[in-house]
Amino acid sequence: MTKLKGPLFSVGAHGTLGDVLTFQGGASGPHVGKVPRHRDAGSGGQLSQRALFLAAVANWNGLSAGAKAAYNAIAAGMRLTGYQYALKVFMLGAEAPAVGRAFSDGFSLGFG
What we know:
Elements: E1 3-5, E2 14-17, E3 21-26, E4 29-34, H1 44-61, H2 65-75, H3 82-92
Antiparallel strand pairs: 1-2, 2-3, 3-4
Helix pairs in contact: 1-3, 2-3
């Protein structure tokens, strides 16, 4: 799809042509280049981190509403959401708090 502003080969052309070329204007003058694309992470460390993150998300999605509420209650004082806190706990390999336990003991993983 063409999303150009101005005549195609003019100094004022800017936008993307057919998801292939990008026309830009800048301080050094007009520039035409490829549409920037993000290269997918391919190193071993990146792939293992991605797998760990996906497992943490799956763990969160498998929690009951009560367990999610418990994580939300703990995270409230840390300026985090329960989702963020649960992912931190899972990804750091820390021991998760027992759901239903009173959290008045100031349980923290050192994030607060």
